[in-house]
Each structure stands twice: as structure tokens, then as C-alpha cells.
Specification:
The chain is an alpha/beta fold. The chain has one domain. The chain has a seven-stranded mixed β-sheet. The chain is globular. The N and C termini lie far apart (39 Å).
């Protein structure tokens, strides 16, 4: 990767498979293959370099963030923007509501720094708005409340109280996706990975990481991540594109580049009401 990119925005895109469409992304979107299911070296792999890929089944995309921290962040300049995304979710260059138009999603991908960035230190995805639940209620209704039985032993008293107040809100930015400066990226990781390790230890003791909750530590951090960035940096929001199976299908990508098809920009429902 050329770290002299004049745009200074580098987005690491996590995937567990080496989809062909990843080759068609702009150069500033850098695919990283998580886990050990892919043998080829077409893209960067988290198993090459310092990694915690053995914890991917519990930490999901967080093992990719750890890999960037340990293997790439040192190459970035202090005024770079460094972010993460998923193969199905790519950053867009504005806040967008779902709508049909003739433009394509490729033209809306975030590739350049613009005036929006001068007013912020970190970027999160446009929040999910919860109609019937608080963040806390939404989490326990989907993942259970057991993790909160020991959270007070892990977080400091003041932070625990503050985080509980945050969980009583009705919106949060999902997916553990963010864009920020290298120093803030490092500070986030310095806080989150010791927290993740303690949560995993307690979850394994209680046999909580099973079935649909095998990624329980990652599900929890998905709620903690926006809290941390809001508390520790000046946050702005952008939308992300959501791709269906047609977009990522290798068969489709052999024949054409679906990212550049007309009307593809209708596939980014970011303002969600649940």
C-alpha cells in the first residue's frame, strides 16, 4: 500500500473470503482477510503478522482492528485518516437516505478527504434509531443480560455509571466501524482490547459464548465503541453502503463490476428505525 496517498484516507476492509469484487474497490479501501479459511495471498491476511486470529470466533472484526494496530498503524502519518469497514458495508461520502436514482454506489464511496473532516476527529456510521427499546433493552433482548452481571467489576466506577446512562439512549452507531486519526485509533485499542479480554474471560467462565452468542464480546463492544468515541473525540457521521449477494457474487464480478451499475446507489439503508 502506498502510504503517500495524497487523500490521506485509508479504509481497511475486513472479509473472511477473497471475493473478486474486492479487487474492484478504490485503492484507498484495503481488503484484509480474517480467519484462516483462505489459503491464497491475493489480499492482506491477518494470519500474516502479529495477530489474534484464534479469537476471531469471539471477537469478529475486532481481530482485524487488532491486526491494523499491530502491523499497519505505525506506517501512517499523524494527519492521516485511518478507518475500518466490512466487505458488505462500505463508507459513503455523505449522509444518505435510501432512495432510487440513476447514480451508482461506486461514485458515492468515500475516497477523498473533504471539508466535512476538518470539523471532526472521528467518524462513526449514521446511528440506528430504536423506536421501542433503549440500547440496553435492545442488547438484552437479543443477547441476554448476563454480561452486565460482571461488567461493574471490569469498568471503573465512574465509567460504569456513565456507560449505563449511555445505554439508556435510543440510538447508536453499529458495526464497530469508525474512521479516526492514528493516535486516537491507538488510544481506542489500548482501552478496548484489555476490556475485550476481560469480558471474554468472564464469558467463558459462565459458558456464555455459545450458539448465536458465540461472538458475545464483539456484540458488547459494538455498543461500547460509539460510546468511547463520543466521550473521547469530536464525532461526525457518514452513511455506509450495504451490498446484497448480487454485488458480492464471484460469478457476477467475473462478468461486470456491479458497483458501477446504474441504480446501485439504492442499496444503502443507513437511517434505520427498529
Amino acid at each position: 500500500m502506498n502510504y503517500s496517498n495524497k487523500n490521506k484516507i485509508y479504509i481497511y476492509c475486513f472479509s473472511t473470503k477473497d471475493y473478486l469484487f474486492l479487487k474492484k474497490l478504490p485503492n484507498n479501501i484495503i481488503p484484509i482477510i480474517l480467519g484462516d479459511l483462505v489459503s491464497s495471498n491475493t489480499f492482506l491476511k491477518e494470519t500474516n503478522g502479529k495477530n489474534i486470529s484464534n479469537l476471531n470466533k469471539y471477537y469478529a472484526e475486532m481481530t482485524g482492528i487488532y491486526w491494523v494496530l499491530k502491523n499497519k498503524i505505525k506506517y501512517h502519518k499523524e494527519d492521516d485518516w485511518v478507518g475500518v469497514c466490512h466487505y458488505r458495508r462500505l463508507w459513503l461520502n455523505s449522509v444518505s437516505k435510501p432512495k432510487k436514482n440513476v447514480s451508482n454506489i461506486f461514485s458515492k464511496l468515500l475516497i477523498n478527504e473533504n471539508s466535512f473532516f476538518t470539523n471532526h476527529e472521528s467518524i462513526l456510521v449514521d446511528p440506528i434509531f430504536l423506536k421501542r427499546e433503549t440500547i440496553f433493552e435492545q442488547f438484552i433482548n437479543n443477547h441476554g443480560k448476563e454480561i452486565f452481571d460482571f461488567l461493574h467489576k471490569i469498568l471503573e466506577v465512574d465509567e460504569y455509571a456513565d456507560f449505563k446512562n449511555y445505554l439508556n439512549m435510543r440510538e447508536f452507531s453499529p458495526c464497530n466501524m469508525f474512521i479516526t486519526k492514528p493516535n486516537i485509533f491507538i488510544n481506542y485499542c489500548d482501552k478496548v482490547f484489555p476490556l475485550l479480554n476481560k469480558i471474554l474471560e468472564e464469558c467463558l467462565k459462565r459458558n456464555l459464548c455459545i450458539d448465536k452468542n458465540i461472538k458475545l464480546p464483539a456484540f458488547f463492544i459494538e455498543r461500547y465503541t460509539p460510546y468511547w468515541f463520543i466521550k473521547n473525540s469530536k464525532v461526525g457521521y457518514l452513511s455506509y453502503g450495504v451490498f446484497n449477494n448480487f454485488f458480492i457474487s464471484n460469478l457476477t464480478n467475473i462478468l461486470l463490476n456491479p458497483l458501477k451499475l446504474p441504480f446501485s446507489s439504492s442499496f444503502f439503508p443507513t437511517k434505520l428505525d427498529i
